[in-house]
Amino acid sequence: MSLPQRVKHFYERVSVEREGALVLLPELYADDVRFVNPVVDKRGLQNFIEQWHLAFKKYKVFEFKNVEVTGDDTLFSLTYSMDLRFSFGPIFKSDMATDCHAREGKVFFCRDYFDPLGSVVAPFPLLDKLYRAIFSHLVA
Questions:
Q1: Which of 50, 51, 40, 44 is nearest to 29 (CA)?
Q2: Helix (H, G, I), strand (E, B) or coil at 55
Q3: How many Å apart are CA 39 and CA 79, to the nearest integer?
Q4: Residues 61 and 84: beta-carbon distance below 8 Å
Q5: For a designed S-S bond to 111, which of 36, 46, 96, 103 qualifies (C-beta 3.0 to 4.6 A apart)?
Q6: Share of residues in the chain with pLDDT > 70 (%)
Q7: Measuring CA to CA, how many Å separate 44 from each of 27, 32, 48, 49, 74?
Q8: Distance between start and end Cα atoms, the chain
Q9: Does position 78 have pLDDT exceeding 70, yes or no?
Q10: What DSSP element (H or E) covers 130?
């Protein structure tokens, strides 16, 4: 199985096995992996693993849906929908993309793209409408 397919399989397993899927990380990610998203910029496999453990501590629901992958064993992207829920409150949905750069069969750079603020306000119709109205004037 190609590296992109194995990473996709990992994301799908997280939704079912949660922390049990983390055993796959050393097979998929380099010791010096750099992981970047709108709120995190970390280096090293141990830090990457710790970020996953923190997510499992924070979220009662942590699921990836409709994972699609494009690219090859050196450069590939995943697109998916992520559902999160704390121990109480609504489910927060976020459409995401992850770019992965690999060498020698392992990912050494991984960047997640998502809208943190939009994901937080989405379950609240009034806030979501206000957020979209403000940003439609600023961006679009």
A1: 44
A2: helix
A3: 19
A4: yes
A5: 36
A6: 94
A7: 14, 4, 6, 9, 19
A8: 41
A9: yes
A10: helix 125-138
The two tokens of residue 121 are 């306000």
- Coil vs helix vs strand at 114: coil
Cβ-contact 136, 118 below 8 angstroms: no
- Would you state the pLDDT for residue 4? 98
Which two structure tokens, joined as six digits, stand for 35?
């992981």
Instruction: Give me the residue label for tokens 């004037």.
Output: 137
Between 75 and 94, where is the model more confident? 75
Query: 90, 123 in Cβ contact below 8 A?
Result: yes
User: Above 80 in pLDDT, residue 139?
Assistant: no
Rounded to an integer, what is the distance from CA 46 to the centroid of its chain?
17
Please give the pLDDT value at position 116.
65
